[in-house]
Amino acid sequence: MAETNTSGPVIGVATEKGPKRPLNADAHAHHQFHDRLAVAIVDGTGSTPEVAEFAQLAAATAVRIAARRTPVRGVMIAAELCEDPAVEHPAPSGTIVVATMLPNGESLVAWAGDAAAYGYDPEKQEVTRLTTPHTQGQMLREEGLSDEEARKYDNVITNSLARASYHGVESFVTHRPLLILASDGIHRLTDSELTDIVREHSGDPEMCAQQIVKAGREKSRDDITVLVVPHPHPKTERG
């Protein structure tokens, strides 16, 4: 459902458990601090109650920090929730994407893993993926392997909340007036397919999120979570 508050932000939310998963280990959260809005998705690794609880805690932690500081800081603080110096790959863990929307129309985005951020350009009327997945499959594509072969390794994650303190966090700034955050359950949808959905439903974030999840389900049996977030202070308001 769409989440709103009296100060204006509208967030379209849709989430669905994978058909054969015992529970939904995706989590999402948002937090507003003064005129800064932070949103996040965490895709928990696994399908246990412990993983689902961790994912929700990590998402809630990340947005509270990101709204006050930056998404990079939010990811790194959330990463501390699963740190364990006694093991190489602490658990539970998960992938994460966080965005902070600023009053000047900019959005700061940071991520670790294959949770993704997409941006809608209303002038070109197109959606493009703004994040590069941290997966072995993506690394192989960049080395020249065909997409067909590389796709076999898309489920091998090379960065996550458990690994962020070692591998770091990528980030960028965008002026796109509408962002879509998603878990990897929609990763087989093309930018063109997303564009068609957003063109039709950009004025209704809740319906837009629901339709993206519906389209993603046709190509994935994973948990799927989508946030459709219009910028509360879009750059266009200032010319």
Number of domains: 1
Supply the CATH class: Alpha Beta
- The CATH architecture would be 4-Layer Sandwich
- Share of helix, binned: 25-40%
Give me the count of strands: 11
CATH names the topology as Phosphatase 2c, domain 1
> Ranges with pLDDT <50 over ≥5 residues?
none
Q: What overall geometry do the principal axes of the alpha carbons give?
A: globular
Q: What is the straight-line distance between the termini?
A: 31 Å
The number of helical segments is 7
CATH superfamily: PPM-type phosphatase domain
Q: How large is the radius of gyration?
A: 17 Å
Which sequence of SSEs, written as H and E, runs from N to C?
Answer: EEEEHHEEEEHHHEEHHE
Which secondary-structure class do the elements indicate? alpha+beta
Domain PPM-type phosphatase: 10-231
Protein name: Protein phosphatase
Region (Disordered): 1-20
Organism: Streptoalloteichus hindustanus
Describe this structure in words.
The radius of gyration is 17 Å and the shape is globular. It has one domain: Phosphatase 2c, domain 1 (4-Layer Sandwich), CATH 3.60.40.10. A 6-stranded antiparallel β-sheet has the order 1-2-11-10-7-8. The mean pLDDT is 95. A hairpin with a 5-residue loop joins β1 (2-4) and β2. Helix content is 28%, strand content 28%. With 239 residues, the protein is an alpha+beta fold. It has 7 helices and 11 strands. It has helices at 49-68, 71-79, 136-142, 147-150, 164-167, 191-201, 205-217; strands at residues 2-4, 10-16, 26-33, 36-44, 94-101, 107-112, 116-121, 126-129, 170-174, 178-182, 224-230. Residues 10-231 form the PPM-type phosphatase domain. It comes from Streptoalloteichus hindustanus. InterPro entries: PPM-type-like_dom_sf, PPM-type_phosphatase-like_dom.
